[in-house]
Amino acid sequence: MSADNAIRSARVELVCIACPIACRLTVTTSLRGDVTVTGNLCVRGEAYGSEEVRAPKRILTAVVPTDSAQFPCAPVRTDKAISRGLVKRLLSELYGLRIALPVSQGQVLMEDFDGARVVFTRTLPPDEIPPVGKPGAESEGHNEIPGLEQAP
Amino acid sequence: MIRRAIDAVVVGGGSAGLAAALRLRESGATVAVVEREPFLGGILLQCIHTGFGLHEFGEDLTGPEYAERFIRPALSAGIEIFLDATVTEIGEELEGRSVTALSRSLGVVRFSARVVVLAMGCRERNRGNVAIAGTRPAGVLTAGLAQRLVNIEGCVPGKNVVIVGSGDIGLIMARRLTLVGCTVRAVVEIQDYPSGSARNIAQCLNDYSIPLHLGHVVTRIEGRDRVEAVRVAPLEDGNPSPNREFRIPCDTVLLSVGLIPENELSRAAGVPINEGTAGPWVDADLMTGARGIFACGNVLHVHDLVDFVTEEARRCAERAAVYLEGGAREPMIPVNAGANVRCVVPNACAPGRQNVFYLRSLVVKNDALLELRVGGQEIRTKKLAHVQPSEMIRFGLEPGAIQEPSSDTGRVIEVAIR
Q1: Is residue A152 part of a domain?
Q2: pLDDT along chain B (418 residues), means of 10
Q3: In this structure, are residues B272 and B293 in contact, taking their beta carbons and an 8 Å threshold?
Q4: CATH-assigned architecture of domain B126-257
Q5: So where are chain B's domains?
Q6: In this predicted structure, what is the pLDDT of residue A148?
Q7: How many CA atoms lie within 13 A of B372 on its CB side?
Q8: Which residue of A11, B104, B182, B410 has the fewest C-beta atoms within 10 A of its own C-beta?
């Protein structure tokens, strides 16, 4: 890089959000548009740093209203990061919905929003618990749990 | 009253309780989980944001996703699950422990258990714990309660919000409230550095241009029926500076001022408590000072990451399973917090096997050195690039790293940061 470029190129200090280590990144964009990332411990830091200066993206999580009084909110996420600039638009789409339960974790709510899928993250209503005193469906080999004794 | 004889009762069906129950069940023990909420999963269910499971699964999961990875196996493992049931007392029996629970559907349930695993988690410090002056209007609530309201109940607690304390829950809620249409006016932190992670400062505050006032305190809450404003002042020589005080109009104050392990039940059962962690003292088996009672997760000490809760709960269950089989207790050496260390867990080391310790620093420091000494003699050091009180430090000690305690009793391992 020439001295001239060094002066006129852009340099940004960032904190990587890819994981809790939170590497302090220095991202330099040359006049030609080449981006270099330093300070990162892994490839995810490099990807985050260069993406952040070009077109920042975030994973979005939110809750959508349901038709249930018992479980009024169904939590959702995007399976990939979406453009930060589109977060508001996705939120207003989600807040306008009214979801009929049941839903299960991983079930797709929107197939494609900015290249990401919006999926439910919680099974609602939650799976029924097995009746007390009886072993669960997949553990027929463990019948040693005695039945409930009603004390006098 | 229903009576129930069982190998192990796990108190709490959150991340610690589920991981412990599953591991105990895998060992062949009969296990009951008693959970006071009507569903399993604990506080993870209201943590709809990502950041969970990076260690445990190598994936960036939301709280509910992480929880269901344990709920599903628990439902089919033959674990007895009691929901909507609150444990009111842990007592002593001739052989083991009694656990009394009040269940909405079953009434009083009395367990006779050989092992009890405490996994009740923690609760939030509130306004009384931090003594903020002013009136007592509506609109002052803890960050975790606000999180439950927004993410589970579907209500928004206010419009203009000031957050006191920069713990991770407070930062996460700053972003969350912004996304549901609130204006977060400020985050006020008494210390000169944020108590939450740098990553959350970046993605929760900076992304939304939320001001962070470090080295500031809320000196007063104003308002008659509802919060109208808070007064905020910078600290000078440890005291709020009245001349530089300013007022932030708001209708809601969120407190994110720390967590306390929830140990009323443990105390009543005679479990000795460590003041450094506010959780039970535990030996290398994560067994408390009360025989047959084990502890893991946030009831033992407040963790930063659920992944470490899972790891600790499994280790606890493995040792509880050995105890159930009547395995011989290994010799142990006490472990104490030394210079610049607020607390270390567990409080003993079994030299014959792998040991994992968690500790918290009392100081903020770069290029720190973690030091283990036995009887004044240095046995191990570890370089730490950065330490601060809000970041838990984890380190392992392989089998044989320390000689078995012999006749020279009174040996103590001291953990210090320099």
Answers
A1: no
A2: 95 98 98 96 97 93 98 96 96 93 93 97 92 94 97 96 94 97 97 88 94 97 97 95 97 96 97 95 96 97 95 97 89 92 94 92 92 86 88 89 66 92
A3: no
A4: 3-Layer(bba) Sandwich (3.50)
A5: 1-124+259-329, 126-257, 332-418
A6: 53
A7: 21
A8: B410
* B304 chain-A contacts, CB cut-off 8 A: 20
The pTM (predicted TM-score) of the whole model is 0.91
Overall number of domains in chain A: 2
Residues A68 and A45 in one domain: no
**Tokens matching residue A34:** 């080449």
Instruction: Tell me which amino acid residue B414 is.
Output: E
SS3 call for B159: coil
CATH code, domain carrying A86: 3.10.530.10
The answer on pLDDT for A141 being more than 80 is no
**Chain A interface residues facing chain B, Cβ-Cβ under 8 Å?**
14-17, 19-20, 22, 24, 58-59, 61-63, 65, 72-73, 75, 77, 84, 87, 91, 105, 121-123, 126-127, 129-130, 132-133, 135-139, 142, 144-146, 148-151
Closest CA to B143 of B164, B128, B159: B164
Q: What is the ipTM of this complex?
A: 0.92
Considering only CB atoms, A139 lies closest to which of B72, B77, B179, namely: B77
Residues A69 and A115 in one domain: yes
CB contact under 8 A, B79 and A136: yes
**pLDDT attached to residue B409:** 59
Question: Tokens standing for B101?
Answer: 């629970």
Rounded CA-CA distance A57/B101 in Å is: 48
The tokens of B175 are what? 């972003």
Counted residue by residue, chain B has a size of 418
Q: Are B23 and B70 in contact (CB under 8 A)?
A: no
At the top level of CATH, which class does the domain B1-124+259-329 belong to?
Answer: alpha beta
User: What architecture does CATH give domain B332-418?
Assistant: Sandwich (2.60)
Do the domains at B1-124+259-329 and B126-257 have one common CATH topology? Answer: yes
Closest CA to B264 of B276, B246, B278, B283: B278
